[in-house]
Amino acid sequence: MSALAAPAPASTPGGSPPPGDVQPKPTANSRRRIILGLTGFWLVGLIFFIGVLGFGSHKALDVRNGTFTPTNEFKLDTWFSVGPVNFNKGVLYVILAAVITLWLMIYAARRLKQRPGRLQAAIEMFYGMTSGMARENLDTTLSRKYFPLIATLFIFILVSNLIGYIPLPVNTLDKFSLFGARLPSFQIYAADTNLAFPLILSLLVFFLFSWERLKAHHGPIGFLKSLLPSGIEGPIKPMIFVIEVLSYFLRLISLTVRLWANLLAGHMLIAFMGGELGVLVGSAWVQWLLFPAGIIIYLFEAVLIAALQAFIFAILTAIYLGDAVASH
User: Fold this and answer.
1) Lower CB density within 10 Å: C or N end of the chain?
2) Is residue 25 part of a domain?
3) Which residue has the higher pLDDT, 242 or 2?
């Protein structure tokens, strides 16, 4: 009778199970088991490749005759031409970055609400960061004028960097067969790894801050005088002037090379650690040995470097624009 009269377990609002029936969250032990399992799988694979193929070299024919090189993935094979424009994977990635950037901006503008959600909170955080770049380096007038450019450059370069870590079928130099059809191989490629892309962006910024300096200092003579720090006198003055002129034009090179070299080096590291080094030496066990390092570098580049390089380019744009109108 007492058993029949025992009250049923109370349920929480919304029909969810009582606290005692909630499934436990993954613990440190379960994560440790997953890590040990993956490590064991990697070790078994390494032993398998060494046991079956040994330590000897088994280079492919295209590696032995020199037709395959690690730089092949960065070559721009023209697919078709429209007037003077040659369409290749570099152009495709620039178009993709531009379309995605426009879509993100339009989508975010339409989704903004008076009651903040997660999207609006993220947009407001981004707005605060980019507007801070402009406010801290430019006066009020220039900040209002160039804030849209600084924010757009940040988003555009970030999008371009991120899609460079998504494998796409764009490698027309190394095709594969599928039911008799020769299709482009999948690869990761970033528009930034083509020197022309960061150079065009840097030329835009260089022209803008040079124009602002020319206006702020009332013509070419004032422009040249503004390059020389105040308080320098004597015979050292001409030498300092030459150094300042060179450093001014080096801004164009630094903007270009910083973005280009970091993305190029990152993609080459991913390719080497992800398998290309093993292909070059002709050992499958080397590919398997370095594969975890390739994954780690890939995550590091995609999560940190992509955003960091976009941030650096945007903030240097603000700094150079602010310096153009400052008095030295």
Assistant:
1) N
2) no
3) 242
- pLDDT-derived band of residue 289, with 50, 70 and 90 as boundaries? confident
d(CA 164, CA 246): 33
Instruction: Determine how many CB atoms are found less than 10 A away from the CB of residue 67.
Output: 10
Q: Are 213 and 328 in contact (CB under 8 A)?
A: no
| Tokens at 270, concatenated | 């991913």
The answer to whether 140 and 281 have CB atoms below 8 angstroms apart is no
Contact between 126 and 159 (Cβ < 8 Å): no
In a domain, residue 14? The reply is no
Structural domain includes residue 320: yes
Per residue in 179-196, pLDDT (tens digit) is: 778 888 888 899 999 999
Query: Looking at the domain assignment, is residue 224 inside a domain?
Result: yes
Residue 185 amino acid letter: S
Which amino acid type is present at position 108? A
Contact 97, 163 (CB under 8 A): yes
The domain of 278 spans 38-240+248-325
Specify the number of domains making up the chain. 1
